[in-house]
Amino acid sequence: MIRFFNLLFIIIFLISCKNSDDKLFKLLDSDKTNIKFSNTLIENDSINILDYEYFYNGAGVALADLNKDGLLDIFFTGNQVDNQLYLNTGDLTFKNITKESKVSKPNPLIWSSGVNIIDVNKDGLLDIYINNTLRKNKDLRKNLLYINQGINNKNIPVFKELSKEYNLSDDSYSSNSQFFDFDNDGDLDLFIGVSQIQGMNPNIYRDLSKDKDPVSIDIFYENKWNKKLNQPFFENISKRAGIKFQGQTNSVFINDFNLDGWLDIFVGNDFLSNDILYINNKDKTFKNYTSKVFKHFSLSSMGSDMSDINNDGKLDLFVSEMQPYYNKRKKLFNRQSNYRREQITRKYNYEYQYFRNVLQLNNGINPNTKLPIFSEIGMYSGISETDWSWSTLFGDFDNDGWNDLFISNGFPKDILDKDFSDFRNSSGKYYTTKLLLKLIPEVKTRNFIFKNNKDFKFIDMSKSWGIDLPSHSHGAAYGDLDNDGDLDLVINNVNDNASIFENLIDRKSLKNNYIRFLLNAKKNDTPLQGTTVTVFSDGMIQKQILMPQRGYLSQSENILHFGLGDNFVVDSIKVIWPGNKIDTFYDFEANNQYEIIKNEPIKLLTKNKLVKLFKEVSHEYNILHKDKDIDFDDFDYQPTLPKKFSQNGPSLAVLDINNDGYEDLFVSGSSKSEETIFFQDKNDKFFKKTMNLKNDIDLIEEDTALYFFDVENDGDKDLYIVRGSNQFPQNSRYYKDVLWLNDGNANFSKFSGVLPIENSNGTTVKGADFDNDGDIDLFVGGGVKPSNYPLSDKSYLLENLSTPDEIIFKNSTSKIIKSSSLGIVKDVIWTDFNNDNLLDLIILSEWSHIRFFKNENGNLKEIKSSGIENYSGWWNSITSSDIDNDGDLDYLVGNFGSNTLFKADFNQPISLFSKDFDNNGSMENIISFYSSDSIGNKEKYIYHVLEDIVKLYPNLRKSFNSHGLYGEATSEDVFDKIDLSNSINLNSNFLKTAWIENLGNNNFKINDLPPQAQFSPIYGILKTDTNGDEYDDFILVGNNFGVEPNQGRLDAINGLVLENRGNKEFKILELPFTNFFIPGDAKSIVNITNKNNILKIISQNRDSLKVFKFSNFDDKKLINWESNDFKCSINYLNGSTKVMYRIDNNTYKSQSTENFTVNKKVESVQFFSNSNELLRTILIKK
Q1: How deeply is 942 buried, as exposed, middle or buried, from its count of CB atoms within 10 A (0-12, 13-18, 19+)?
Q2: What is the pTM of this model?
Q3: Which end of the chain has fewer beta carbons closer than 10 Å to its terminal beta carbon, N or C?
């Protein structure tokens, strides 16, 4: 049933004038609103921030229509002051009815925190539940339940405190609560978030597996009917429900995360305690699936909220933390770099947690686990740093159809300020508590509001939208207080009057449209909490969940508000009620509010079965292997590295090693591990064999790259192994590359001759006959000079001059390197980028542009003006493809990505200054990057904190004797105090993964890939065909788990399938369709052919190989190269063509099969020699 309410909506056209105020929000004067509430806190010797860290954690606010007059009323909780209820009297004015409604605290010493307004007893009247905390006397911590007794003749709701009668007088240091129906039995159950720090130290790691009697456990109450009292009675079932994990809970969000019709629980915890995702088992129990769904969290999680930020129909999660947004505060707050925290996190079974807000993007349900998968993209989105943040609220504040983000902020006494901590530790014992309290800095900073930029990014609109007033703000709620069709804001402040911000969007000349839905149910029907509404309007999809208790300790309106932009009509809405009952409604006019009453569900007569693109088959084919790389701490030797250089494998290679006609898989060996071969048999199965190709008896060497080629021209493939990593001293014997000769039966003997290279830390090896003499030459890339980043070890061009009688390699590096170093080489590719049938070379390095070397009859000459010579990146990988089907090779290149604190562009590059300051034989590094100052201006600052920098240059302490002084200093100020003579200065301005368009005539153009490709560093790249068209699609894998410890693991991608749509456009295919899931620190990717499919095999550092095959291979035909084939032209039925080279099959640390597939749209494939002679034609379709 639908009831239609036309809202009185007055359109005011603004008259242009020079002095007009164009801000979106207006702070209302308390004399106008009559709201005089202030959460005033007074410290003394017995209760203060020094003795109790939660003293300034603030209180909440709730919005609800308590007297059923169509206007939202406001309830504030207070810590040391009384709670207050304000009745909305219209026109944004309110009346304090606390005493008349009988909702005052029964004892003024009660310290109230969170608040819920909800119909607990299903009598149609809203009740109020209040969490109380902090006090040592448990009677003062008993929660309060005010049951609505009805509305008196003055239109005022009257309440009676009945927490004891309902068994809800919980005394557990509770901070917040969530009412929801966890067992789908038609009544509201209760989850209470507990935040206790008394009796424990929440900052100490301990073995969670042995934590038998933890302190501060959340509590779960099941709603049971008391027949005698004819009312609900709540029973504590926490233990048998599986609510058993320790934490200091700051916020809780209820949502059906796995879309099974049963509501689950996300818990945001403070301090070291893990955030928790309790998945509902549908049997009145929950199970913690946190690590199966999320990869990392905020360290001290504060507020939380969920919204569909990219309008894809999936709810995303935001959690606030305390990372400052400007440099001085960063340097006063952040800890020194310490990778051991990462290692301790693993040792004691903690989740990975970092000092910043997190935005968890919902990638959909993993078809195998039936659990959702999230990628954390807060740094990419620009919302990871908002200082001491509390409430987080998603809402469409400008009605443009995309949810924006509000964050409340501030802390009266910053006890984490490092200057104060240093003073307190050194001299605090000489001061009284009163004097120490006066010396603690305050954090009175602005609140934040971000506009959704519709591209996974948010723009800070705090100033232009008018909410940038300094405050100590905590609980916050939104709602349409004046029924004008937009969202107003109410904020509970410490030591200031509450803030009421009126939204003025309805007064803008170019205002947007909206629609609002009030959900209701018949009496005694299932509660509505957890209901989702999806709106479809002119191609736009928006999804919201009805969960008024959101943010921090607070409750927003219970109406779902959707902005529509310039759309005036909603085509349809889909309502999914708790329990997965579905209603669909059609044709709604904008700028109205509708009431929807729950009906019978629409019957689903048919259901389309989703055919997944890939299937994971590692067990099916018996390709089971886990990398055992040593977790070496590179930062021990160079503390200010941007990332580790010792965990970049394993490498993979595919070929027929034993000449039995079936392709095999070779896996490199990390330090202290043997190499592994998976031999394929005639039944398409694989059997595993380990092989020791190390020189050291203890297997110390680490294989960093592999290349199989026929060095002797005897018909079998020999193996060149590059040795590297960053674990050993310079020139170590463990960096000695080796050549192993294959007897044709996979028996290898070590080449006893001399390879003309030194013991260099290598990263890659790629082979090609670049001089057209009939044998394969090798390029070996040099990595970082051990413990001397950013210096690079040597790279080599090994020219093959072998004869039938002797294997000879010549160091012909001078053909490339004339006067400049190649830097830290990450990947190279032999390729014909100018269509002259000579193989050219492209080299990717860190802190460098991509370098193109043109083959001029066996000599490689660098092209200085490539069109992209000014794009300096932290490049990782490259592969070739005729992406736009124009007859020449384009390139897809993996870079570091944009979901990082290391931001860079052409106007604001990131810089590195390096020098051996202390003459100890090792380079010290100072990273300089752009960051905001206190008023929002971008300046260049030193990235690392003072403690890290003075390790490199101790004399700096004389110039900057406090963290605050250092935090105010720009890079130039700091460098004035440092001797930078003879230092190395490197700069990068482009960190995006991209594709390079070949424009011809040795000219190239960089083109962006979709935002999802920037969420993590990209390593392995593989061509594929996802949709049977004429364009190459791609699979990308990556992440980096060894980044500078304070920003932590870059782990946001789970493997990407990139569909080439033609017209130089790409689309990311979603996980539920692709079933391609690579969550780890992925590196290499290869194709391997078998009788009925092509397998895709991916390596992960310190994790297992993943193997996928096409779910449907019927539309593909396998094509093999023959001995003299150099390249081919693939000709399609529609007249289009694309070029492919035989050597196009390799990417980062990967040597893939040479075989390829074509689809049913191909007419023929023509093969050419390296002199462009047509050798043969295969007809696919006649």
Answers
A1: buried
A2: 0.95
A3: C
